[in-house]
């Protein structure tokens, strides 16, 4: 028998992934064009052509050993330098190459950070609703996850609850911004208030409490919104990033950690990240992808594509009587379930071949997540199905009838 | 402060990596051509041209979403199918695609296996001398490492000691074959005997004890030696593999786990591996590399290159009076330290700009590891330095003077 822990994990395995597989099965039966799968955050927009070109160029020009060989566990210095410079230009920060550690995506980055900072039973705050994988990432390193409630009118965190949840055992807080699953951006005001609470608590408990940002959606923002860059507000910050969304390359597993140069014991923290990258079995971020990145720092996938989707799905659903906050970033819509039991709503949506993920997966029951990183045409095709779903729940407002 | 655990890890950080960095510093001072760095297992031979071609072809022909997008956590079915077929052809096994889980190298594979099978305090046997990273891989999942002594006349495991080390808590044994750091191949006889001991102990304790093979050097064998394929000798076996050595692509982090189709609760084990891949933050093996592999199943780096190195370094060192077993596989030579204190010998070698790693890193004091995955020319240039080293220890046999 495999481990008891893993038996439990399998039993409660990711609802998101389960839905993804269910969608594939449904597509086999009724045709892919008739399934409206909004379940998975799998970027739809193509990779920027420059990125594929950079891959080909690297393969054609670099020596084998340099291109596919081992390097420092933290990554190629030139890639780290390119990222440091790019961040400094965009955010007025002062990163040197040494503050950047290349990782196997943001999932890898978060695990490397937690391996570096957590002792058993250390507590990590997460702001509900949150990406369910955080549970595993924290548990992998024997940390204890503590949830902070949201203010559901804005989906900014409830700061009173946040302060109450901090204890002597608190070692870190994860700040995912823009937020999966709500599409909300935590404002500068929110970040400043969190920083101020943490500063106070650090003094009270006489040890560091780290901000760990998780920012794969940083570049996917709309209407000119800005995502605060955390190292400018709080020194004890690890920024974790993935190129999965900004370059549409989630399968390639490439990201980084940026360590605030003003972090306490900064050099030791950087050494720890490098060691953790090795010990956890990542060893280093994939080498060819590191090389290709160097020339693609300002490349972006087609954000306008997601924006167009966002407008269509948001306008339509709110007109149909569904209730949700207009996303400011990422590619998710977090819809209030019209059924008191969100699970029933997810099942009802499936009747119309609409696949959504229940908010319980994000520790926020009573809601569902819709991922609009899909084709515009699919959204168009799905609208009659949403109409029927709204009708079933008698949501459609009088004036639009 | 970072975690207490990580502070200790940094303090005792990998001697191999430390030596690698020391070599780089030495090269800056006296010129790279005057440093004889035998410290790191960084493959020197070029990537087969077909592999680079397969990368370019995949980039030029596949859609972005298919090439760089998410896939099942276990990997692309076509890659898994290609590997299953290739193994079946070569070893007469009966793998289907579902028995293969793509991983971030063998380091990733081992962590995924241990996450799947280990509950806290479960014990894992390792055969000394062994790759020091196993310590971290087992500790990551709260397992306890138990060392089994070698028979130092052959560097096959001491099977009496092995049997004594098995307890009710034993959950697995790692079989690294060919062995890093000795270059020895565990014979079919050894494997059969281990299998027989484990079968008996499984019955005694009424639970599975897994063989976890670690085979990155499987294709690097000399003189027609054969490496037994473990699933043929023992059902409860996970084979972990990396293409790092056979294709000279260690920086790319690509490997797999093959689950014996006859394993107890095989389906559950496979589900566990997939979940572990996700939870540990690997998510999936790098996607472009998976695609490139499909067409390169029979591609190999230039094994003759390593063989030529092996012969030169082995013949020379034994003539100089050093004592070691002639390697049958991998690209390491495990030399008995002529100094009772191996550390002193490593330091003395450094005086002559020869970089070796002490056997203590492999839990086998009194030896040093020499990695001959270097250029033939470097070995030639290093020979006078070895001569001086031998002279300093008065090793050179009378007849060769």
Low-pLDDT sequence parts of chain A? none
Mean pLDDT of chain A, nearest integer? 95
Distance between the termini of chain A: 58 Å
**Major β-sheet annotation of chain A:** 7 strands, mixed
Structural class of chain A: alpha/beta
Helix content of chain A: 40-55%
Oligomeric status: homodimer
What percentage of the residues of chain A does DSSP assign to strands (E)? 5-15%
Shape estimate of chain A? globular
What is the radius of gyration of chain A? 21 Å
Q: Reading side by side through the largest sheet of chain A, how are the strands ordered?
A: 2-10-9-8-7-3-4
Your description of this structure?
The structure is a homodimer of 401-residue chains. With 401 residues, chain A is α/β, with parallel strands linked by helices. In chain A, 42% of the residues lie in helices and 14% in strands. Chain A has 14 helices and 14 strands. Chain A has a 7-stranded mixed beta sheet, sandwiched between helices. Chain A has a 3-stranded antiparallel beta sheet with strand order 11-14-13. A two-stranded parallel sheet of chain A has the order 1-12. In chain A, helix 12 (303-319) packs parallel to helix 14. The first copy, chain A, is globular. Chains A and B meet through helix 1, helix 3, helix 4, helix 6 and helix 7 of A and helix 1, helix 3, helix 4, helix 6 and helix 7 of B.
């Amino acid at each position: 028998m495999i481990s008891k822990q893993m038996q439990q994990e399998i039993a409660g395995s990711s609802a998101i992934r389960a839905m993804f597989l269910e969608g594939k099965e449904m597509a086999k039966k009724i045709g892919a064009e008739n399934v409206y799968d909004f379940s998975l955050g799998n970027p739809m927009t193509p990779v920027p052509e420059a990125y594929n070109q950079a891959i080909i160029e690297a393969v054609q020009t670099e020596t084998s050993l340099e291109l596919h060989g081992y390097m420092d566990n933290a990554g190629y210095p030139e890639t780290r330098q390119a990222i440091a410079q790019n961040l400094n230009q965009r955010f007025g920060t002062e990163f040197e190459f040494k503050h950047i550690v290349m990782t196997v995506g943001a999932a890898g980055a978060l695990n490397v950070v937690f391996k570096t900072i957590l002792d058993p039973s250390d507590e990590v705050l997460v702001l509900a609703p949150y990406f369910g994988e955080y549970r595993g990432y924290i548990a992998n390193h024997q940390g204890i996850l503590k949830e902070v409630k949201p203010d559901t009118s804005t989906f900014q965190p409830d700061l009173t609850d946040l302060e109450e949840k901090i204890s002597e055992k608190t070692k870190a807080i994860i700040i995912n911004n823009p937020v999966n699953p709500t599409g909300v951006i935590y404002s500068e005001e929110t970040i400043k208030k969190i920083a101020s609470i943490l500063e106070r608590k650090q003094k009270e408990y006489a040890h560091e409490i780290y901000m760990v940002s998780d920012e794969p959606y940083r570049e996917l923002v709309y209407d000119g919104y800005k995502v605060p860059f955390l190292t400018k507000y709080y020194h004890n910050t690890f920024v974790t990033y993935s190129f999965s969304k900004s370059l549409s390359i989630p399968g390639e597993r490439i990201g980084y950690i940026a360590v605030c140069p003003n972090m306490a014991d900064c050099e030791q923290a950087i050494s720890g990240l490098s060691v953790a990258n090795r010990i956890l079995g990542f060893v280093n971020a994939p080498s060819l992808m590191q090389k290709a990145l160097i020339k693609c720092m300002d490349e972006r996938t087609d954000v306008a594509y997601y924006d167009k989707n966002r407008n269509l799905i948001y306008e339509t659903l709110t007109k149909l009587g569904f209730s949700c906050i207009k996303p400011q970033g990422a590619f998710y819509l977090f819809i209030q379930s019209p059924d008191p039991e969100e699970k029933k709503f997810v099942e009802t949506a499936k009747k119309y071949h609409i696949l959504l993920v229940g908010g319980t997966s994000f520790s926020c029951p009573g809601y569902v997540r819709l991922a609009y990183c899909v084709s515009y045409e699919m959204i168009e095709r799905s609208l009659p199905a949403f109409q029927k779903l709204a009708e079933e729940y008698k949501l459609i407002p009088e004036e639009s009838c």
